[in-house]
């Protein structure tokens, strides 16, 4: 009777670079695995090399955070016509900024001895020391993985974006989608506006996402908001990249973890006009934790089978 490997045309690989063992006994198989199995790497599991970079980056972040938390603390005594509901966004931002100012003022009075230090003040002080977003702020804010310093810079950019909306009361040439507390509100409003203008039922509408070759700067310098839909920017792709020249999803470049997307033109069409051929249904998330931060699904062009990008976990992120 022929061996199992004899039934296979050519060499049988159990993994990239790992040939099937010759016929032997139980101990022989164990020895073969111990001696011949290649060094563990993303390639061995059919993953892109960037997968290991992301894992090592996360591990390093956790290590540094743990070390930082163990450092001694010495606070010392040194002296010291819109298509979306921008009004709701402004309301939530005012709520957040008011809480930031209130809690910091309260902590200042506590440090001066004019107020009794409470557990909330201690939590705020610890978070400030560790460069973390205080829980009392995070509870009223948007999902974010940034440290406190970067988070505060991001907060100021969001406030500036909302000031533009509330001052001019017109749709910007390009909208920073990640700058919203609730980005779904903009996407839903695009469908509502088109459905109302064309007297169509909302449940028959869907979004068409056309990735342009334009950068945000060119949009602001040379164009206004489109008559149909909106230009959005500020998205990043994880697990792959967008090739501007060919207009399709491509494999990631080495060490390029979150490549930026060009400006995207989002408009509403009826579902019967939607063409899903050669498309990858790409989920959009607010942060790289994914899960509960899901926003929408954008259909992006691809020459490869969509299963390839699904297995690679390709997604669009509003914040990295």
UniProtKB/TrEMBL annotation:
It comes from the Eukaryota. Residues 88-318 form the Dynein heavy chain C-terminal domain. One of its GO terms (biological process) is microtubule-based movement. Pfam families: Dynein_C (PF18199). It comes from Rhamnusium bicolor. GO terms for cellular component: dynein complex. GO terms for molecular function: dynein intermediate chain binding; dynein light intermediate chain binding. This is Dynein heavy chain C-terminal domain-containing protein. The lineage of its organism: Eukaryota, Metazoa, Ecdysozoa, Arthropoda, Hexapoda. InterPro entries: DHC, Dynein_C, Dynein_C_barrel.
């Amino acid at each position: 009777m022929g061996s199992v490997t004899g039934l296979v045309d050519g060499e049988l690989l159990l993994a990239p670079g790992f040939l099937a063992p010759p016929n032997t006994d139980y101990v022989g198989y164990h020895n073969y695995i111990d001696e011949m199995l290649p060094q563990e790497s993303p390639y061995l599991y059919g993953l892109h090399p960037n997968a290991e970079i992301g894992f090592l980056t996360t591990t390093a972040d956790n290590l540094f955070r743990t070390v930082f938390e163990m450092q001694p603390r010495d606070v010392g005594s040194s002296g010291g016509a819109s298509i979306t509901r921008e009004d709701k966004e402004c309301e939530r931002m005012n709520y957040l900024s008011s809480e930031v100012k209130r809690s910091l003022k309260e902590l200042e009075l506590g440090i001066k001895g004019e107020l009794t230090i409470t557990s909330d003040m201690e939590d705020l002080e610890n978070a400030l020391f560790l460069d973390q977003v205080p829980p009392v702020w995070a509870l009223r804010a948007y999902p974010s993985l940034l440290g406190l310093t970067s988070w505060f810079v991001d907060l100021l950019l969001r406030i500036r974006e909302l000031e533009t909306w509330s001052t001019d009361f017109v749709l910007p040439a390009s909208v920073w989608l990640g700058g919203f507390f609730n980005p779904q509100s903009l996407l839903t409003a695009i469908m509502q506006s088109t459905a109302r203008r064309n007297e169509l039922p909302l449940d028959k509408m869907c979004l068409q996402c056309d990735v342009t070759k334009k950068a945000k700067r060119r949009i602001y310098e040379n164009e206004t908001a489109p008559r149909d839909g909106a230009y959005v920017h500020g998205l990043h792709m994880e697990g792959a990249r967008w090739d501007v020249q060919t207009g399709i999803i491509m494999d990631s470049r080495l060490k390029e973890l979150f490549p930026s997307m060009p400006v995207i033109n989002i408009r509403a069409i009826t579902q019967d006009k939607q063409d899903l051929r050669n498309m990858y249904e790409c989920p959009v998330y607010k942060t790289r934790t994914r899960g509960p931060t899901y926003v929408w699904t954008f259909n992006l062009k691809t020459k490869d089978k969509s299963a390839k990008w699904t297995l690679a976990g390709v997604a669009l992120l509003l914040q990295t």
